[in-house]
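Practice record 12: protein with magnesium ion.
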Amino acid sequence: MSGKRPDHPSPGSILVSAAEIEDIVARLGQEISGDYAGRHPVLVSLLKGGVVFLADLIRHLTIPHHIEFMRVSSYESTQSSGVVRILSDLQTPIEGRDVLLVEDVVDTGTTLAYIVDMLRLRNPGSLEVCALLRKRVPRDPGIPIRYLGSEIPNTFVVGYGLDHEENYRNLPFIAALATETSR
Ligand code: IMP
Ligand code: MG
């Protein structure tokens, strides 16, 4: 008896271990540092899920950079609502800047497509996407991801910043969400 609600989902099998995440983030940091050598990009992180990834990623950057945050919402519990809402916008103009959008997980691609379209209208010098995870979805959302950490199965995951109803962001690994009643 766990003491939890019987229908309360909890982290199940680990899909990306802490050690694997470390390797992935180090590799991405190296790639980005090489590609942006001599430039001064602004990394835009999407709150809240993207903060853990961003915090680790910038410690692998050897180039000068700024960080900015946007707060968007498209998920309700474990389902994408399909509607992206901007809850908090960037605090600085990005016109002419090299912008790197740092996203935790690309699922349907709805969030990314919306943000990319919106940021393009502000005339950045360049705009690329770095995503830690991409789900293997049958329908390709067609968003180019310049820097990709890892592909994962099309299942809801938690950990390393990703939540289920605000829980489990602290886990050092990425795990599938398991429902206790299904065991
Ligand atoms: P998309 O718009 O369907 O691509 O969903 C992207 C956003 O939904 C991500 O930025 C996450 O915040 C959230 N999201 C998508 N899949 C998951 C998941 O498996 N766990 C937690 N959050 C997720
Ligand atoms: Mg997100």
